[in-house]
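Appendix B, example 12.
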Amino acid sequence: MKKVDKGFEILYWRLSNRRKFIRTLWFIPIGVFALGLFWFKRKNVLECILVTIVFLSVGYWQIRDTYLEWKKEEN
């Protein structure tokens, strides 16, 4: 299956590694907004801190992984 690097593609796994990285960066503001709503709605601070740590860990891992795969694909 050819990976899409130009144009519009809904399915994440059909994107090239460069486009996956760009899409991941675009979802950062949405994730920050979702975390803000979570903190606003919840009263348990420990739960909010744990969810934030998990969110940041997974987000960092995904950005790092897609960036490294993109650079590996370029070489």
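Residues 36-75 form one domain. Residues 53 and 59 are 10 Å apart (CA to CA).
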